[in-house]
Design goal:
mainly beta; five-stranded mixed beta sheet; 33 strands; 7% helix; rod-shaped; disordered C terminus
């Protein structure tokens, strides 16, 4: 009894397993128990489709049960194939000459039927005995939805068994490994960047079977991007050309056989082509919102930065760092040509300056040295507020405040009183917009004040006039 319980438990565990083992055979055939000789042939008797009343002497439970499973035929030297293994129990009776077993594919509406006949003399001697019939020669496809019927010959009404059955798909370990239909193929590709075409050659897939192939963008699933083709199984040429719009790191080639629930393979060869990811920057002048949305999932740190004119270095703007695989958005952003977005990944950094080409209004800061004062004023095509700071330059991009801070609007100017000690090459005027959250601070340095009798290190008084007016174009 203990062994029986163990066997039942193992059976339950086996059928709950994700990796069911499909029995293998080398040849298919028909077998009948009780020593009954039986043989099969394809059914062509259309009259057996119509039933008639059973004789009164026929027992009510002639057909006892029907069980269906899948077996894998793996003859040496040939690829494996899937077959239905149909078992039924019949009570022999002198009114029954045999059985008809039919399978109907609910996917294609194709049917197959076979007749099972018994040796009449032997079956009469065993009248009332139960015989088990097993037939496993009906070939099926991967993931096929089948409707199986078993009825008597002659066909007696209401003496019939039927059952729906789903053939295992390519996720089954045995089917995926040994059935050619689950071989999703192999890709070779070539990229024509000038014409934006990817040529794909497919090999190692089931002969005479149609094959689908497409381009897609891989997020959680592979999303269709519209480029789709089918390779006819009967065609000798197994290659297609697929058009693309941008080479993105998530652009993949996906292919699968034209059968239900076929296994798909993907090739994503452009994982390092990240350049096009940084182009999708949008600015809304009404809301003053600057946004970037990736065309592919990517781990990236985004910063706003100030592009330095002298060495093309982009200095990060404070409190602007964002890390997100999705959309990044900044509100109330200055539209100055030197305000840029910097994208940093493991592969490196890329800087994009969306206002560099003058599509949006920008502002300028100017200074003029008059006697013992520096006059600062701003020009802008839009209404704006600014701050002015007097500072000493300590590094290329750093300026230490001297404590003189002023506010000014567009069209107005501010005058800053200077002493001779403050003037020199380290002296700078720094200005930035205050009516936005993210602004580029600009500096005018090397300002020489207009004190009487002032000369320069080379004793050339003409240079004094040249330095009396400075504009944004000479910024560092």
């Amino acid at each position: 009894m203990i062994n029986i319980h163990v066997q039942i438990l193992l059976t339950i565990l086996f059928w709950n397993s994700d990796c069911q083992i499909i029995p293998r055979i080398e040849e298919c055939g028909l077998s009948c128990s009780q020593g009954i000789h039986c043989k099969s042939k394809p059914s062509s008797d259309i009259f057996n489709s119509f039933c008639h009343d059973a004789p009164a002497s026929l027992p009510s439970m002639v057909l006892k049960s029907m069980k269906i499973s899948t077996v894998m035929k793996c003859a040496q030297g040939s690829p494996c194939s899937l077959h239905l293994n149909i078992k039924g129990i019949l009570s022999l009776d002198e009114n029954i000459r045999g059985l008809e077993i039919c399978s109907l594919s609910l996917d294609t509406q194709q049917s197959q039927c076979i007749n099972v006949r018994f040796a009449r003399k032997k079956s009469k001697m065993l009248n009332g005995k139960k015989v088990q019939i097993q037939f496993n020669c009906i070939e099926v496809n991967v993931a096929q939805h089948i409707y199986v019927t078993m009825k008597t010959v002659p066909n007696y009404c209401e003496v019939k068994l039927s059952q729906e059955y789903y053939v295992e798909d390519c996720r089954n370990s045995d089917v995926g490994k040994y059935i050619p239909a689950c071989s999703a193929g192999k890709f070779d590709y070539n990229v024509d960047r000038a014409r934006k075409i990817i040529s794909v050659n497919v090999s190692n897939f089931l002969r005479d079977q149609d094959y689908y192939i497409r381009l897609c963008h891989k997020w959680f699933t592979c999303e269709d991007v519209g480029s789709f083709a089918m390779i006819k199984g009967k065609e000798s040429l197994k290659s297609v050309s697929l058009k693309y719009s941008r080479l993105l790191p998530c652009l993949c080639i996906e292919g699968w056989l034209a059968i239900p629930d076929a296994r798909r393979i993907q090739l994503c060869p452009f994982e390092n082509d990240t350049k096009a990811l940084w182009d999708n920057i949008v600015y809304n002048p009404v809301t003053q919102t600057l946004a970037w949305e990736p065309a592919c999932p990517v781990l990236v740190i985004v910063n706003l930065c100030r592009l330095m004119k002298s060495n093309d270095y982009c200095e990060d703007i404070q409190n602007s760092s964002r890390s997100s695989p999705e959309k990044v958005k900044y509100s109330r952003v200055d539209t100055h040509p030197r305000l840029c977005m910097k994208f940093t990944t493991k592969q490196g950094s890329w800087v994009k300056c969306p206002f560099a080409h003058g599509e949006f209004p920008a502002w300028k800061m100017r200074t003029a040295a008059v006697a013992e004062q520096i006059q600062v004023f701003f020009t802008s095509q839009t209404k704006a507020q600014f701050s002015v700071l007097v500072c000493n330059r300590t590094q290329l991009a750093s300026c230490e405040s001297l404590g003189m801070h002023h506010s000014v609007s567009v069209g107005d100017s501010v005058s800053i009183a200077m002493s001779q000690e403050m003037c020199g090459s380290a002296f700078c005027i720094q200005g930035w917009r205050t009516d936005v959250d993210y602004s580029v601070p600009l500096q005018i340095c090397d300002i020489h004040c207009g004190f009487r009798g002032q000369t320069y290190s080379d004793g050339n008084p003409a240079k004094a006039m040249a330095h009396r007016m400075k504009s944004v174009h000479s910024l560092h």
